[in-house]
Write a structure and sequence with these properties.
This protein is an alpha+beta fold and 316 residues long. It is built from 11 helices and 9 strands. It has a 4-stranded antiparallel β-sheet, with helices on one face. Strand 5 and strand 6 form a beta hairpin. Helix 2 packs antiparallel against helix 4 and helix 4 crosses helix 5. The longest helix is centred in the middle third of the chain and has 29 residues. The radius of gyration is 32 Å and the shape is extended.
């Protein structure tokens, strides 16, 4: 067999094909791009887009003014200074970073709260200004003003409301029972079966780390699982004067007064079921860390997450 040095002639094409395949694989790896954006990147993009829209509209409204008069007007207006700070935070977003561990909280806690405060002030000011103009000018002139400003009188409050909605209090992640991650209101709970620990987060702030055997879920309103004992109604206090007055008013009044006073005093705010996470460790006795958190079960997802958390802690 003829040879090229120490390599057979028939093996040269195979070696060349292998090298070419390796080069193509290396090129494909270097040019690999992420098909999916990092969790939280959409939130950062939306906030910056809203800030750029408000800034563009603000600059467009000052086109007719010269620089000196506009700067003097901004310096003498506290609301303009507040808007400048709000736009700076909204466009640059200092400290914002999209992370897979915090899909719903790419912003630092202080930045989220500051944007929420400034957006609330801007929304109240925009609604008050538009409402006062409609009240003084009338509906027809208000419609003409909306058309003349290309709908900005309605878009400005909507943009501030959008920032409020994006920066609303929410949990760190969604409920994932398989991964033992639970979200109840603005609280996020992670159960680690390997170490037997539970980490509780309130929004993006770590509330604490606890032993899973020392935590338990309590249902103050008796809204737990089927095995939970029903809450007993409070005993009525007997009042002789009230009993005599009820007897003199007839049987209908007596049946009406037989309703429990607790049910009569219960308002619409107390009808929402709540759940509590208790720390039953001996180290927690005597101070306010015995109750880790108390949250209202607003949605059906919160109720399912609370029951799943209760089951997971019982198994731990």
């Amino acid at each position: 067999m003829s040879r090229l040095g120490n390599i057979p002639i028939m093996a040269v094409p195979q070696i060349w094909l292998r090298r070419r395949q390796r080069q193509e694989d290396a090129l494909a790896r270097t040019k690999e791009t992420r098909a999916n954006a990092a969790p939280g990147a959409g939130t950062i993009f939306a906030l910056r887009a809203i800030g750029l829209v408000i800034l563009a509209r603000w600059l467009f409204s000052m086109v007719d003014m010269d620089i000196v008069s506009s700067l003097s007007a901004m310096a003498s207006s506290p609301w303009a200074c507040i808007n400048l700070v709000f736009l700076f935070l909204l466009i640059f977003l200092p400290g914002a970073r999209a992370q897979a561990e915090r899909p719903f909280h790419p912003l630092p806690q202080w930045l989220r709260q500051a944007l929420r405060l400034f957006a609330f002030l801007g929304f109240v000011f925009a609604v008050f200004s538009v409402g006062a103009f409609v009240w003084s000018a009338g509906g027809r002139r208000a419609i003409h003003a909306v058309a003349a400003t290309n709908g900005w009188l309605l878009a400005a409050p909507a943009l501030y409301a959008a920032v409020l909605w994006i920066c609303r209090p929410r949990a760190l992640w969604r409920t994932n029972v398989a991964a033992r991650r639970f979200a109840i209101g603005r609280y996020a709970i992670s159960v680690d079966v390997a170490t037997g620990t539970v980490v509780v987060w309130v929004e993006s702030r770590k509330l604490g780390q606890y032993d899973a055997r020392e935590l338990s879920v309590h249902w103050p309103d008796g809204q737990g699982n089927a095995g939970a004992a029903p809450v007993a109604a409070p005993a009525a206090v007997f009042d002789p004067a009230e009993a005599a007055a009820t007897a003199s008013m007839g049987p209908s009044a007596a049946s009406a007064s037989a309703l429990p006073r607790a049910a009569a005093r219960t308002g619409w705010m107390h009808r929402r079921p709540k759940v509590e996470l208790h720390w039953d460790s001996p180290a927690a006795a005597g101070h306010n860390h015995q109750t880790v958190f108390r949250a209202a079960l607003v949605t059906e997802g919160d109720r399912l997450a609370a029951r799943a958390l209760d089951t997971s802690l019982r198994q731990a």
